[in-house]
Amino acid sequence: MVTTIFLVKFIIITPSLFIMSLDEALSSLRKGDFVLLHDGDERENEVDMVAAAEFVTPAHIARMRQDAGGLICLSINHDFSKTLGLSYMHDILSSSQRIDAESRDMIMGRAPYGDRPSFSITINHKNTYTGVTDTDRALTVSEMARLYQSREANPRESFISSFRTPGHVPLLIASEGLLSSRLGHTEMSVYLATLAGLSPVTVICEMLDSETYGALSQEKAKKYALQNAIPYFDGSKLVEYARRH
After folding, report:
1. Which uninterrupted H or E stretch holds 196?
2. What's the rounded Cα separation, in Å, for the pair 76 and 125?
3. Which CATH architecture has domain 18-244?
């Protein structure tokens, strides 16, 4: 009994030991709860709050806005983006005849950590008002998941008739090869949702630190995870799993 109490205390005061299993992370997503996901030390080195889009409510958006504080984005898999006729924003801008040569220098190539951006367009659902409230953004997110689940014969037509751009929810397109091509939160979150048997549509938000004005450290993120009973998952383990399977 004494040993058990000591171990519990040791884990609580040592958040660096707190890394959940893949099964626990998938179970949390299936229940409509969050997962904290770290991408990797050699990449952004950031922790994102992740949830499955099909379960998102205004309360999810409010918590991401208040506790994470980064950009709340909607990630979709590559096949879904193709059925909707979506492209990466850097490709859209590069092919635009209205962009002059000097302005093309602004179009993002690769980030400092080596990746091309996964941003596409920004959207609002047609039934939103301003689009930015927790209720409006939750509607936009959940309706995109519903569109994926609907398996409509012409999803592009439904997408065009149901959503407006520009909006307040940035769309991110996962790379075609997922973790074999890019190791971002976009790909990792979509891969987690797929492993969980859910729609490959996720909502993600970077966790920021109001004290350092940078990204929330892994240690602080793990402490937050412990205090709030949210699984913390190391993306490097997800990459290892993907390579094995």
Report:
1. none
2. 16
3. Alpha-Beta Complex (3.90)
Spans of all domains in the chain: 18-244
CA atoms within 13 A on the CB side of 132: 3
Please report the pLDDT score of residue 15 as a whole number: 43
Which parts of the chain register pLDDT below 70?
A: 1-20
DSSP 123-189: EEETT-SSS-SHHHHHHHHHHHHHHHHHT-S-HHHHHHHHEEEEEEEEEEE--TTGGGT--SHHHHH
Determine whether 213 is an active site residue: no
Which among 46, 187, 206, 234 is annotated as catalytic? 206
Is 48 labeled as catalytic in the residue annotation? Answer: yes
> What letter represents residue 58's amino acid?
P
Q: CB atoms < 10 A from the CB of 112, how many? A: 7
Report which residue type is found at 52.
Answer: A
